[in-house]
Amino acid sequence: MSLFYSSILIAICSTLLYHITIKFTPADANPALSLIVTYLTAIILCVILLFFIPLKSSIADGLKQLNWASVGLAFALVGLEIGFILVYRAGWNISTAAIVVNATITVLLVPVGIMMFSEKLSAMNYMGIVVCIAGLVMVNVK
């Protein structure tokens, strides 16, 4: 299987696992402590990954190649995870919360892709955006 398909499969399976496991975070557990355990486990998994995705040079050289995006990603991940813990504690259904968030993000990323990355959209893409917005409205109608 090519990287094109295997990478999206990993992302889909991981996102599915993400929502199922975060929904099972106990309601009385401290969200910050829960994330500390999560990130300690993630660090161990990342160290193991280094054996499968080896560095091309030393760790020091690898660290020099990084930029602000790694720190920005940390803020995004903590916000995302605290956000979903609170979303599920507030009573959102697992079946609709992710749809609302992902469809909204999809629509918000359109101008980002156009302005920051010079992406081009087709008429079909724009129709998909309209469907996303319509879906958001339909999912949120009680």
Describe the 3D structure:
This protein is an all-alpha fold and 142 residues long. Helix content is 79%, strand content 0%. The protein folds into 2 domains: 1-92, no CATH class; 93-142. The protein is globular. The model has no long low-confidence stretch (mean pLDDT 93).
Fold blueprint:
Layout (H helix, E strand, L loop, with lengths): L2 H21 L7 H22 L6 H6 L4 H21 L4 H24 L5 H18 L2
Q: Helix tally?
A: 6
Return Rg in Å. Answer: 18 Å
Report the sheet with the most strands, covering strand number, pairing sense and barrel closure: none
Number of domains: 2
Secondary structure category: mainly alpha
Q: Mean pLDDT, as a whole number?
A: 93
- What is the string of SSEs from the N terminus onward? HHHHHH
What distance lies between the first and last C-alpha atoms, to the nearest angstrom? 42 Å
What general form does the structure show?
globular
Helical proportion, percent range: over 70%
Number of strands: 0
Low-confidence stretches: none
Residues in β-strands, percent: under 5%
Q: How would you summarize what this structure contains?
A:
The protein is mainly alpha-helical. The chain has helices at residues 3-23, 31-52, 59-64, 69-89, 94-117, 123-140.
Which key features would you list for this structure?
mainly alpha; 6 helices; 2 domains; 142 residues
